[in-house]
Amino acid sequence: MVVLRKLPGMPGWPAALGLRLPQKFLFLLFLSGLLTLCFGALFLLPDSSRFKRLFLPRRATASASSSSSASSSSASSSSTRDTDLPRSPPAAAEPRHASPAAPRRLREKLRTAARMAGPPARTAPGSRQQVQGGESRAQPASAAPPARETRAPFRFDYERFRRSLRHPVRGGRSGEDPETRARRMKIKEMMKFAWDNYKQYALGKNGELRPLTKNGHIGNMFGGLRGATVIDALDTLYIMELEEEFQEAKQWVEKSFDLNVNGEASLFEVNIRYIGGLLATYYLTGEEVFKSKALELGEKLLPAFNTPTGIPRGVINLGSGMSWSWGWASAGSSILAEFGTLHLEFLHLSELSGNPVFAEKVRNIRRVLSRVEKPQGLYPNFLSPVTGSWVQHHVSIGGLGDSFYEYLIKSWLMSDKKDSEAKKMYDDALEAIEKHLVKKSAGGLTYIAEWRGGILDHKMGHLACFSGGMIALGAQHSPGDRRQRHMELAAEITSTCHESYARSDTKLGPEAFRFDAGSEATATRLSERYYILRPEVVESYMYLWRLTHQPKYRHWGWEVVQALEKYCRVEAGFSGIRDVYTTTPTHDNMQQSFFLAETLKYLYLLFCEDDVLSLEDWVFNTEAHPLPINHTDLKAAGQP
Which residues participate in the annotated binding site? Predict the structure, then answer.
């Protein structure tokens, strides 16, 4: 027990503790350390601002609080800036390696919560806390500063969009002859037959129909997404006025189309089939479910762009957001026809959502391509997403390259001829193709060869047969002499592709055909003799018919209809065949979703009047899903 007493000759209070000199020193050292620790805690701990108010003058307190509030407000503003959807953000606003964005609905909830967050609710409703001289008191809410103005949710003006169309979506149905109508009705019956069997044996189970075994099949391209045939068929069912079947498909999308999957998907295939099909059906019908599904799925694709260059990788896990290149792609490269076939759909995702991130992603692809050197003015098929350089010099207008060129001219048309960059890229590319790849066989057939580091491979794939239609479409907007030259080139290429059909026993074309060793427009390898219900030849027939009205294109199209009925129609749908050069072919047991999306749609349009999905109002994505030409600004009135 410490005895408090005064000792003679000793100072007062330390002596009162009865301590010797060394003890006094230790005690003072301990006391000073304790005081330092306490005051340091008051001023340095994260929640120390409430204690600072006890010691700092009032002005300093107010200044500190204001600084803290401004910092918090700035952080909140920064975290919600991309969800506020500015129209023209700087290109560097989003880091290339940023984490995948949260689903849009979740981001909106977080933003709302951030705006509503405030000090602890210890005061009565309708009042707020104010600190003065270390005391807290309630102040009426009327004294609060005005709330920060928030931007109204973006809304696309669908009714205004429909009024901007120059022709009815399904046309006027006037002045057609009975034979043309009968042929169109036959194609409509084929579509109904293909759909009914898919619905019976595969709807809700898998992506595509196996018509021989009468079951479903889901490929490894869709990342666990089901219903590829449903989404691909929607706009075809609508255009053909198969109303009951369209409602069946719509109901499946509303109730059963689940986007919460965890699988490896092709960025390209999900974009052109699923997003393209959903966007097109929204524009045709105005049904919100198609728009919301397209936007949600579009956000799931964004992590694929998180590369050093912004060039997306080809494969993405739709659950985790991880992406990588195809194992067969040279040196981990991305494929020209894949990353170059996003522009149409992603611009429409930004148009409908008000979120510029989608458009910025594809515009960055353009910037990368504009910087890289093009050998002989050509675009090779493999580009490194890490360095932005070509990996090898293989050029093809067919597989691996095809739809990149298609999307250049269609981007220009979709912009109502305002995207001059796309038009120049298309013109320059076509000039290089004409100079280096377009050849004529000994028998007078014009074809587009493939280019491998300067060495030509004299073959043409079925996929390359779309180019006749593309060149004809682009020729309509070229000056006089070039227009005529390009129309002649388009007609010659389309005629060559027709020859590849006419020279087979089934009157259906092979996967690839060659011009060497005395062979012309025929497959010379067993691995190239199959036909999988592809649409590219009839696609060119449709464009050439609409742009020239030469009867031969309808005649050639009807030959395809007859061949499909004779060799590909089976008991429960349509199937590809393994050899077009035999009249007793073996079926491959696959009704491809693009048969309903493209082949039957293009055949149907071939026998329609020109105002059905008029080329003045629509461009078709590479899966034949119609997307509207941007004739006007379609934000809802009153929006910034």
Answer: 622
Give the separation between CA 165 and CA 415, rounded to whole angstroms: 14
DSSP string, 530-542: -B----HHHHHHH
Cα separation, 231 vs 222, in Å, equals: 12
Three-state DSSP class for residue 151: coil
Phi/psi of residue 393, each to 5°?
Answer: -100, 70
* DSSP designation for 210: E
Per-residue pLDDT tens over the stretch 204-226? 777 899 999 999 988 789 999 99
Q: Which residue has the tokens 């409703």?
A: 125
Residue with tokens 């067969």: 328
Catalytic site includes residue 351: no
Task: Give the separation between CA 573 and CA 616, rounded to whole angstroms.
Answer: 34
Active-site entry in 299, 402, 520, 609: 402
Q: Which of 208, 232, 345, 536 does the annotation list as catalytic?
A: 536
In this structure, are residues 226 and 236 in contact, taking their beta carbons and an 8 Å threshold?
Answer: no
Q: Of 345, 511, 520, 539, which residue is the catalytic one? A: 511
Cα–Cα dist 183/603, whole Å: 10
Give the confidence band of 65 by pLDDT, cuts at 50, 70, 90: very low
Is 511 a residue of the active site? yes
d(CA 241, CA 302): 35
Q: What is the pLDDT of residue 204?
A: 75
Contact 259, 296 (CB under 8 A): yes
Inter-residue contact 374 to 432 (CB < 8 Å)? yes
Whether residue 406 lies in the annotated active site: no
Catalytic residue among 94, 208, 232, 269: 269
Annotated binding site for Ca(2+): 622
Burial label, 292 (beta-carbon count in 10 A; 0-12, 13-18, 19+): middle
